[in-house]
């Protein structure tokens, strides 16, 4: 199976499944709930989209997902993915940043944390057991590819409960990592 990705806009072809994530879908992930509610009264903003392709054969089950995060911020906090840990504790992932700039946050949710600066061309291996979230700190689209095993599973609940150790805010127009207590 061969797919084509347009690196300028993150459009994948063919693409059997597109999942949009609106502000209402990741409402609880942003710190400033008052600002979230104010924005939601006006518009349910599209924060990012996932374009997904499962490679199924009789003996293997890889999947590829292209994520397009639109630029912007909510209460000073940059647009980001919901973030998750894989349900299976033996499942890693590879992320490849195709376009844009930002950070990949990696967090065990048990005290260990890393923020990897990202730009087009950056490839990061996400070890099993590490929660992962991508932040778009740029003024343009951020596009990245994730490759993982179909059985990995996505645990969003643990991230909603524990939260990442740092949030990324725009401070004087520049990204700043702010530790969460
Ligand atoms: O499998 C992955 O890690 C990615 O394809 C993500 O699912 C994608 O980037 C969207 O992020 P999230 O699943 O946290 O909403
Ligand atoms: Ni993942």
Provide an overview of this structure:
Keywords: Gluconeogenesis, Glycolysis, Metal-binding. Its EC number is 5.3.1.9. It is an enzyme of class 5 (isomerase). It catalyses: alpha-D-glucose 6-phosphate = beta-D-fructose 6-phosphate. The protein has a single domain, classed as Jelly Rolls, CATH 2.60.120. The chain is 9% helix and 50% strand. The longest helix has 10 residues, at 33-42. It has two helices and 17 strands. The strands form six sheets. It has a six-stranded antiparallel sheet, with no helix packed on it. A three-stranded antiparallel sheet has the order 11-10-13, with no helix packed on it. The protein has a two-stranded antiparallel ribbon with strand order 1-2. Residues 21, 50, 65, 67, 81-84, 93, 132, 146, 148, 154 line the site of 5-phosphoarabinonic acid (PA5). Nickel (II) ion binds next to strand 14.
User: Strand-residue fraction?
Assistant: over 45%
**What is CATH's topology name?**
Jelly Rolls
SS-based class:
mainly beta
Number of domains: 1
What's the total count of β strands?
17
CATH class: Mainly Beta
Write down the overall geometry: globular
Bound molecules: 5-phosphoarabinonic acid, nickel (II) ion
């Amino acid at each position: 199976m061969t797919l084509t990705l347009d690196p300028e806009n993150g459009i994948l072809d063919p693409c059997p499944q597109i999942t949009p994530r609106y502000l209402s879908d990741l409402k609880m992930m942003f710190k400033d709930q008052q600002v979230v509610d104010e924005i939601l009264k006006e518009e349910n903003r599209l924060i990012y989209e996932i374009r997904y392709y499962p490679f199924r054969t009789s003996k293997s089950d890889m999947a590829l997902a292209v994520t397009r995060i639109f630029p912007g911020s909510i209460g000073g906090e940059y647009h980001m993915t919901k973030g998750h840990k894989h349900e299976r504790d033996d499942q890693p992932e590879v992320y490849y940043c195709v376009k844009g700039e930002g950070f990949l946050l990696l967090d065990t949710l048990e005290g260990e944390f890393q923020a990897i600066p990202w730009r087009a061309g950056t490839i990061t291996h996400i070890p099993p057991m590490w929660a992962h979230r991508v932040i778009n700190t740029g003024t343009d689209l951020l596009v990245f590819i994730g490759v993982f095993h179909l059985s990995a599973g996505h645990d969003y609940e643990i991230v909603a409960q524990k939260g990442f150790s740092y949030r990324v805010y725009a401070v004087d127009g520049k990204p700043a990592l702010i530790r969460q207590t």
